[in-house]
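Fold Annotation — chain and its backbone

Fields — amino acid sequence, structure tokens

___
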Amino acid sequence: MALYQAGEFTQAMPYILEVAKQGSAKAQFRLSQMYLNGEGVAKDVEQSEYWSRQARDH
């Protein structure tokens, strides 16, 4: 999360994605926000909603 906090969204993305896939609700929520706001990725509402649901369900 240090890269994310430093504003290095593109560099943070693969790390956050990996942790999110491992089931971390915090990473899943962060990923949903990244997709919603276009932080390091293209804006994608569907992906944002998917990761938000994953975080909610944990």
Observations:
- The chain is about 70% helix and 0% strand.
